[in-house]
Known about the structure:
- The chain has helices at 10-26, 57-66, 84-91, 103-117, 122-132, 171-177, 201-206, 218-227, 231-237, 258-264, 271-278, 281-287, 304-312, 327-340; strands at residues 2-7, 37-42, 48-50, 53-55, 140-144, 151-157, 166-170, 184-190, 210-213, 242-245, 248-249, 252-253, 296-299, 316-319.
- By secondary structure, the protein is α/β, with parallel strands linked by helices.
- The protein starts with a strand and ends with a helix.
Amino acid sequence: MRITVLSGGVGGARFTRGLLALLRDRLPDGRGGTTAEVTVIANTGDDMWLHGVRVCPDLDTLMYTLGGAVHEEQGWGRREETSRVSTDLAAYGVGWDWFTLGDLDLATHLARTQWLREGRTLSEATALLTRRWGLAEQGVRLLPMADEPVETHVVVADPDGGPGAERTIHFEEWWVRHRAALPALRFVQVGLDSAQAAPGVLDAITSADVVVVPPSNPVVSVSTILAVPGVREALASTATPVVGVSPIVGGAPVRGMAAQCLATIGVEATAEAVARYYGHRDDAARSGERAGVLDAWLVDTVDAEAAEKLAADGWRAAAAPTLMTDVPATARIAAEALALVGL
């Protein structure tokens, strides 16, 4: 079985970990792994330069989580982390006090930056990094959505610039420093126009047995991947079934501040509205509008009514417990998602 996952950071990483647990049980390889092949296509719109190194938050969260090194309470970064380097940089007046790179994490960024400066692509650097964490032995291939730099920026009002003035900040500043409290006018993916899908990305979509959209941020994570030239078109046209898991439970995001992102683009923070934002492939084909990407949608039991409404409109939809409280619970969520497309 070949499964492709379109992932942001924490939510997508935890879902994929549960998916792998399910696959080890269903399709064991006799060595503690699985015979299934899982390709994870990661959002790189959160990437940025900091302290002279290239930081890739979602790629690293996926790598640490699947490699067993993540800080579980945070959901990101390394466990048993220290911050002596960042503390000393602050003494020099360098960097941001709201975004701290841990010492162990910094080693990852330094290694990546060295390989990038040597002329390797982000895909190649990612393959070198994941080798240490044994992802290939688990049947996992981690790919960036694109090798070219893409950064999500947020346009906000500038009160110091006069009426109607705007300013642009990096998404991480809006997300981490301001906790998404600054009203966002719009999101801008800088560099997206010149980006191409990284090697293997489109093939992973069209040759998979199923594509899964996990409970990641639908606006700044998954939709950034979908905006890479060719990705949405590949999803819309492939014979591969595409199933998504709602990141919204009972009218609120499971984690993070997805509601603020959805409000910026005028989408309600409900399980049904997010499904319709992604779009059903048949609906898009009939209407001639922007290509939809989903066949099936899994919601939490508290949103069972949303599943009923979607099913009435031709979706394969179901309700089940979707809170990823631990790995076994997440494996059950993955099983429910795959069952929606007959797997």
